[in-house]
Amino acid sequence: MTGHAIVIGGGIGGLAAAVALRRIGWRVDVLERVPAFGEVGAGLSQSPNAMRALAELGLADQAEAASMPTWATHAMRLPSGRHLMRAPAGGRPPLRAFRRAALHRLLLQALPEDVVHTGVEVTGLAQDSGKVTVTCTTGRREADLVVGADGIHSLTRRLLWPHAPAPRFLGYTAWLGLAGTSIPVSGSITLGRGRYFLIHPVAPSQVYWALGTAADRPGVRFDDEPEQVRRRVSGWHDPIPALLEATPSEQVRHIDIHELPDLPAYTSGRIALLGDAAHAMSPDRGQGAGQSIEDAVVLAAALAAGASVPAALDAYDARRRPRTQAVARGARQAGHQMIDAGPISHALAVLALRVTPSTLWARLAPRALGPLWDWTPTALHPSLT
């Protein structure tokens, strides 16, 4: 089955959907409301499941070239610098770390220039048994399928389910930064009580970092955001001070962490939700972008195999909703353990990590994360890949 699809939203999930749909022979238009793409976010890591999804999009080599290996999940420290867990010597790190803009760019470059239309804002949707009509600032467009990849505050979602719960604040906030530095840096996580500091190298001379910490309410901002980061990690081990010193003020972003309560469905008729529009989650499993790329591949595979668009979307919903909602729950629990742990819980967690040999952890972690990391995509249409 082929046809014409309109993808609402030109972020990572929307572009991945466009690439996937084109690989199975669909004609695609992406409508993005911003007039031009800029730097959104700072960095992110992709685990093996997401890298397999990128490979299914035909982007394995490009993704490898645009990222750096990182052992962050296997290298944990205390603010004093004491190692709780060391990365194993040799072997292949399980994660690839990207500058977010680099991952977005490689997806954008996989599409012809006439596919993505910027500066176009969608204002309404209507559908019947045969088509979807999209009303936007440039007029009306018709398609066989509409994919809502328009983020956590998705208009598509609000139009489909106007009474669905709004995104909810998870009780913590984060600062993200990109440091330009020639200092050799390995991926790591430093665990303080009520806060953590994540480090990922994303290029030979560039490092992504993130500080997560508890917050009573969202929306609190400061005149000097970098100073707030320095104050919260004052006295923490090297290379944290050097990374903060090497981060230009304009490369520091402050965000509040929200998630989307479970939806009853990701599809309605000929309209599907994808990525944060369907299942926005906390970053504590490093799965937000990865799950949206998975969504894109599964959606395309369902359409390639389905007898009709509605039937294919039913299959997509059945496959994606249980997995993504489970991943979101796991991310929320992981964030709670790091951000909300009291003194006793924090001390017990540190003790457990301290007494676990790093070699044993290197064997246990992949097993524990197996249900998440071992996911393998269905191959897209073999005649078009």
TrEMBL record:
Keywords: Monooxygenase, Oxidoreductase. It comes from the Bacteria. This is FAD-dependent oxidoreductase. The keyword Protein biosynthesis does not apply. PANTHER family: MONOOXYGENASE (PTHR13789), PUTATIVE (AFU_ORTHOLOGUE AFUA_6G14510)-RELATED (PTHR13789:SF309). Residues 5-329 form the FAD-binding domain. It comes from Microbispora amethystogenes. Signal peptide: none annotated. InterPro entries: FAD-bd (IPR002938), FAD-dep_Monooxygenase_BioMet (IPR050493), FAD/NAD-bd_sf (IPR036188).
